[in-house]
Amino acid sequence: MTVIHTLGLPRMGAGRELKWALEGYWKGDTDRDALLGRARELRARHWDMQVAAGCRYVTVGDFSLYDQVLDMTARLGVVPARFAWPGGEVDIDTYFRMARGRAPRGEPAFACAMTKWFDTNYHYIVPELAPGQGFVLARDDLFDQVAEAQALGHAAKAVMVGPLTWLWLARPQGAFDKLELLDGLLPVYGQILARLAGQGVAWAQLDEPILALDLAPAWRAAFERAYHVLQSAGPKLMVATYFGALEDNLTTAAKLPVAGLHVDAVSAPEELVQALDWLPATKVLSVGCVDGRNVWRADLDALLDRLAPVRARLGERLWLAPSCSLLHVPLELAPDTGIDPEIKPWLAFAREKLAELATLAQALDHGREAAAAALAETRAALAARRASARVHRAEVGARLAAVRPEDSRRRSPYASRAACQRAWLQLPLYPTTTIGSFPQTAAIRAARRDFKAGRIARAAYEEAMRAEIRHAVAVQERLGLDVLVHGEAERNDMVEYFGAQLDGYAFTGNGWVQSYGSRCVKPPVIYGDVARPAAMTVAWSVYAQSLTGKPMKGMLTGPITMLKWAFVRDDQPWRLTAFQIALALRDEIRDLEAAGIGVIQVDEPAFREAMPLRSGRRKAYLAWAAEAFRLASAGVADRTQIHTHMCYSEFNDIIAAIADLDADVITIETARSNMELLDAFAGFAYPNEIGPGVYDIHSPNVPEVAAMARLMEKAAARVPAERLWVNPDCGLKTRAWPETEAALANMVAAARRLRARA
Ligand code: GLN
Ligand code: ZN
């Protein structure tokens, strides 16, 4: 019998119960027992779901109160000194203080850093390593959960972040080679595995996704050493790799002295045969064959064609799984009533993906006739998707085919454009602007809710938004900003707002995916050719411009961000979808220009995030991504000024691509890096204008004039003053008005001080 299992499931629950339980606990509304009780209930439900789907083992340890990396960190007793952990067990309040700086009990302290988990939109808490960091088993959560599963009659497969991946993700606090800590780390992993074996756990899954990255030889060698130590510690070990091809790590992974290997055959289908060839004759191969990162129904017939020979070679040593943890997709499609009924049958969420695995296993074990009904249903859904006139639109294809190379090039080089723009816009030295959004107040959110629920009419809603624009414009004029924005009051989210107005995008009713902690996002689904039936932002921008003599900046989300923060169709390369979005944006930009908007910003905060994990694949991505941006933005006259904005980015290794965007102005987040991010621009002799953020918008603190002026002087030491702008790090939507006004007043004062000194 072919074993099916999952690397992990979403944690939040169908009604986001975990979110509400966590937030209730953090606020002090409920106690610890209520939170832990709710967590136990969710785990039980998720194990039942696996058993019902036919999983041989239920996965234990994928559930987390905040993050699975933090779970491992706490388990290893790696608590930074500022949390004043007395030793013993790491209690949940210490755990929550590490994640978010505060908890119902214990002194607040700086939270640990949070960053994206590989190329996903899930964020993990970064472990901090002190020099000579020690390790000690400090949390029994995994053993308790195993006992919980066993008490419910389940066979448990325990899962945890593997030692090399955990160490790789950790940040040393000081200059030392963290790999030297491995020898201290392994005994605690050994202890954990031994305890699991003592509980009768047959398998432990150790997640090592760094095997899909470029690894230095020392790290590759460390894999062999580590697993040699751990192999005899307890249960059979399955090393799980995902998010990409193994490439030069393939033989290392295949030959590790463990009982099983999981490979991601969705992102690297071409490697499956090679993995088989290298696999020792006793090892289990878990083939990640349905996409754990995306929501499309799998082509089961095609998979069976590929898996049948694998099954013939491996027999019962073949296991089937999703490509990675199902954490990255919503929990259940069936009860979702919000999604377009034509598109719904084309999709599969976590529960449906487990059912797909069951169908595959059944057909492999007993022949396709044994799974005839499920296979027929899949065939019908896929055929409908392929034939749908909403997926393939001749006019979109024809337009893309007609794109000429000059369409993605501005008419003149930056230097002559800059002269036209200066003459038209009449901006001072060190012009001031903001990144787009102003506070999304409770009143704005209430108006949107009321409008969506039909409690207020469209006209009343639009008038409420116009009132917000009037307010934002009046504030900016009073403060003396140079390039104004309308404030984005009418946007709930920078992707959803545009997706909802574009053909080819669909939205789910309840398709929540965890982003970090208790925060979830509901990514749209790009299912078909993208087209813009009507202008999306022009009326708002034109209204805002009518209120002021200063230039009003139009505000759009760029093609890469529109892709990366959505579930993207899998039936054509991302590049083509990006170009379709770019053409829709190109029309919007030209409409804005024709309506008298002279400055247009195209936000690309996800530009870097979408970059492939492997360096060898980056060049091709950066080339098409930059081309998509230019295809969107290059159709304007020389005097129209194109801005872009990026945050939370390192620029060193992508600076050539940033220059390749040929935006007239780029605004970036730099305040927290003390302008060091600008070194990449200076070193490259970046030719266009830059607005390095002078204050961090994540804090309500009002930045001082002198501090911002000092930062800009640092900037001017790297980039000529004539090419510098003064602006915050990012949009202000999460701030309140009083601190926003105070901060911007100081920012304008800082710019004036700089001009006076120039
Ligand atoms: N224009 C957007 C805003 O100001 C940009 C947001 C972002 O960079 N993430 O909110
Ligand atoms: Zn930003």
TrEMBL record:
Pathway of action: Amino-acid biosynthesis; L-methionine biosynthesis via de novo pathway; L-methionine from L-homocysteine (MetE route): step 1/1
Record-listed L-methionine binding positions: I435, G436, S437, E488, D603
EC numbers on record: 2.1.1.14
Cofactor note: Binds 1 zinc ion per subunit. Binds 2 Zn(2+) ions per subunit.
Transmembrane segment boundaries: none
UniProt-listed InterPro entries: Cbl-indep_Met_Synth_N, Cobalamin-indep_Met_synthase, Met_Synth_C/arc, UROD/MetE-like_sf
Residues of the Cobalamin-independent methionine synthase MetE N-terminal domain: 5-313
Binding-site residues, Zn(2+) 1: H645, C647, D660, E669, C730
Signal peptide limits: none
Catalysis: reaction(s): 5-methyltetrahydropteroyltri-L-glutamate + L-homocysteine = tetrahydropteroyltri-L-glutamate + L-methionine
Keyword set, alphabetical order: Amino-acid biosynthesis, Metal-binding, Methionine biosynthesis, Methyltransferase, Repeat, Transferase, Zinc
Catalytic machinery residues: H698 (proton donor)
Name of protein: 5-methyltetrahydropteroyltriglutamate--homocysteine methyltransferase
Molecular-function GO term, any one: zinc ion binding
A Pfam family this chain is assigned to: Meth_synt_1
